[in-house]
Amino acid sequence: MPGQYSQFVPGFELRSANDNNRIYLFHHLLGEGAFGQVWRCTDLSSETEVALKVVDCNAVGNESLKGIEKEIELTAKARSAMGKLCPKFYEAFRVDLPDPLVPSGRSFVKYLIMSMEFIDGVPLDKLIEFSLLNETVCAYVVYNILLALKDLHEKHIIHRDIKAANIMIGKSGRVVLCDFGVSRLLEKEAQALTFTGTPFWMAPEVIISYSLSQKSGGSGQVPGGMRAGYDCRADIWSLGVTAVEACLGHPPHADKFARMPHMVYLTIVKDPPPTMDMAKFSDTYRDFLGHCFQKCPDDRMTASQLLKCRTAVFLTPLAVFSLPLRHEWITEMKEYEKDVVKDRLISNVNT
Questions:
Q1: Which residues are part of the catalytic machinery?
Q2: What is the mean pLDDT of the chain?
C-alpha cells in the first residue's frame, strides 16, 4: 500500500475535481486499512480541518469500489438523519494522478476521494484501553448512540458494525457514530441476509442468516423462533455488547476466544445471552443489557422503545451532561497515546 499512495505526503495539495475551488492541504496520516488511507487535511478555501479518505480505485476492485460508493451514499443519508451524531459529509470526487510507481509520468492512477468532518477526539476503544468507563459515562455514550440509531433506523438504515472502535468521543464530549462502510439501506420491512460485522459484536440472527437463508425453503423461518434475515434490531444487540465492552474492557466471550474470534459464532447462537459478572453492574444497567440481549429479535426493543421504557432511568440527566465536563482526560489520552507507556490511567473517568 505505501507505494501506491506514496505521493500523498505532508504538504501535498490536492484540488477537488468538483466545481467548488476546494484545495486540500495534507498534514498527517490518521490511519489506513484495506480500502485506503485517511488523512488529516485543511480545506484551504474555508480553512476547515477535514478527514480525507483516499482510495486507489484500481487496487480495490469493482465490488469493493461499489461498496465504498455505497458508503458515500449512506454517509450522506446518515448525516441528514442523525445531525451532529454523524460526521459531516462534504464531498466526494474522482481524480487521476500520475502513477508514483511509473517514473515516466505517462501512467495515471484513478483515486476516489471522500471529504468528511475531522473529529478532534479519540475512538472509544482507545479510550477504554486507558481506563474502563463507569456507568455514568457509559450511560452518556449509550444515550447518544441510541439517539443516533433511532434516527438511522427510521431511515431504514442498519449500521451493522456498532462497537467501541466505531464511536468517536470529541474533546467537547460530542459522541459521533462513524464508519458506514458496512451499513445497509433497507426498503421498509426488508430483511438483510448478508454476513457482515465483527464477530464478538454480532447479533445471533446475523450469524445464522447467511448460513441458513438457503435452507429456509423461502419461508425465512429457522429453528428457535429466529428468522433467516435481520433488521435494525441487530444494532441493538451490538450496542449491548458495546456497553459491556466500555465497562469491562472487552466484549463478552473475548477472553475465551481472543485468539480464535470466529469460533465465537456458535456460542453466540446456541448459548444463553451473555451474563458476564453482573454483580459489577447496577440494577438499571442489568435491565438495559437484558433488553439488548434478547436472543429472538422480535423480543428485542428498538432504539425508540429503549429511550422510552423504564430502562431510560439508566440514562439520567446527570449522565447525559457529565462527559463534556471531562474532556481533559481525552486530551491527556491523546498526548500519551504517542508514547510506549500504556500504564497511565485517566483518573477522571472513574471519579
A1: 161
A2: 76
